[in-house]
Design brief:
The complex is a heterodimer of chains A (112) and B (114).
Chain A (H helix, E strand, L loop, with lengths): L3 E4 L2 E5 L4 E7 L4 E9 L6 E7 L4 E4 L2 E6 L4 E6 L8 E9 L5 E3 L3 E6 L1
Parallel strand pairs in A: 2-11
Antiparallel strand pairs in A: 1-3, 3-8, 4-5, 4-9, 6-7, 7-8, 9-10, 9-11
Chain B lengths: L3 E4 L2 E4 L5 E7 L5 E8 L3 E10 L2 E4 L7 E2 L9 E3 L8 E8 L8 E3 L3 E5 L1
Parallel strand pairs in B: 2-11
Antiparallel strand pairs in B: 1-3, 3-8, 4-5, 4-9, 5-6, 7-8, 9-10, 9-11
The chains are: A mainly beta (112), B mainly beta (114).
Chain lengths: 112, 114
């Protein structure tokens, strides 16, 4: 069964600290993996998109990694800011049919 | 600006009163989809459309209808809303179903059915 699992479910960190969010998937055949940031009550906004051949991609303080062999991805946030407080969603798409698979997200809270 | 526009942003209605949530994209995308988001459940797909006049059910289609008469518009219709349809709804679009060039979400519609 195609699934996307994220961990941890929630995370609280101090401002300025780094953190890493995890995404494990069983989606096959794999097309691409995205990380989205969703502020409370708003639509998800894309942070990175990675295809099979890419294993690292950065967007400012956000760095995503992908290990297509182990079907794992991580999102590393460097020097966190209060504005990083949001839900981070991992979305994996398959190469067949209507196939976007969503994780349930990691809720990140950055405190001063 | 390339975007997906949903309206309204907030809606409170009574049980059984038909309503439509509109969704429009200006990116000439073929693929459009509706999701609902509930606490602890993440985003769940309601309906999707591969192209004009091509629609299909997602994971939670009961109580909803959609239409795709034009490429840019993909309205979500609740013929007889019930309180269990109180949720946050998102429309999204992509160039195609594989979304290699991105998958764009609207800002959301918060629906309350009383």
């Amino acid at each position: 069964k195609n699934q996307v699992e994220q961990s941890p479910q929630s995370l609280i960190i101090l401002e300025g600290k780094n953190c890493t969010l995890q995404c494990n998937y069983t989606v096959s055949p794999f097309s691409n993996l995205r990380w989205y940031k969703q502020d409370t009550g708003r639509g998800p906004v894309s942070l990175t998109i990675m295809t099979f051949s890419e294993n690292t991609k950065s967007n400012g303080r956000y760095t995503a990694t992908l290990d297509a062999d182990t079907k794992q991805s991580s999102l590393h946030i460097t020097a966190s800011q209060l504005s990083d407080s949001a839900s981070y969603i991992c979305v994996v798409s398959a190469n067949t049919g209507n196939q976007f698979y969503f994780g349930t997200g990691t809720s990140l809270t950055v405190i001063p | 600006e390339a975007q997906v526009t949903q309206n309204p942003r907030y809606l409170i209605t009574v049980t059984g009163k038909k309503l439509t949530v509109t969704c429009s994209q200006n990116m000439n995308h073929e693929y459009m989809s509706w999701y609902r988001q509930d606490p602890g459940l993440g985003l769940r797909q309601i309906y999707y459309s591969m192209n004009v006049e091509v629609t299909d059910k997602g994971d939670v289609p009961e109580g909803y209808k959609v239409s795709r008469k034009e490429k840019r518009n993909f309205p979500l219709i609740l013929e007889s809303p019930s309180p269990n349809q109180t949720s946050l709804y998102f429309c999204a679009s992509s160039l195609n179903v594989w979304g290699a060039r991105g998958y764009t979400f609207g800002s959301g519609t918060r629906l309350t059915v009383v």
